[in-house]
Amino acid sequence: MAWSESVDTVLSNKEGLVAFRTFLKSEFSEENVEFWLACEDFKKTKSSTEIALKAQKIYSDFIQADAPKEINIDFHTKNDISQNISEPTLSCFDAAQSSIYCLMAKDSFPRFLRSEVYKELVKKHQDRNQKRWLPFL
């Protein structure tokens, strides 16, 4: 399965992403993938008004102290974002996003590959592929 190759493969595949989110939810760390996805969406924003609105939403949801989905990032990264949130740029969350990506890739992803959620995903695809070829047997 290509999904086992990298966290990027899982994040870029709809079914893989759903399974990874389900797994992260079971580990009470779904905020990591939610933050990463919010940052990916944020980077595609064109209007300066939307940039400011989305940046504030990401900040209040994930970065500020006691945020409802607060992510675990180092003090310096959090402080840099806090100091610059009043004039956000499309790259203002890059360091935090990179940190969360590394956390998912090194910590969550290997556990995901050993999880029942992943095994079910692989089995579902194997069954689907097998059924696809059965009429020709």
UniProtKB/TrEMBL annotation:
Residues 6-122 form the RGS domain. GO terms for biological process: sensory perception of bitter taste; sensory perception of sweet taste; sensory perception of umami taste; transmission of nerve impulse. PROSITE patterns: RGS. It comes from the Eukaryota. InterPro entries: RGS, RGS_sf, RGS_subdom1/3, RGS_subdomain_2. It holds the Pfam family RGS. PANTHER family: REGULATOR OF G PROTEIN SIGNALING, REGULATOR OF G-PROTEIN SIGNALING 21. This is Regulator of G protein signaling 21. It comes from Taeniopygia guttata (Zebra finch). The gene is RGS21.
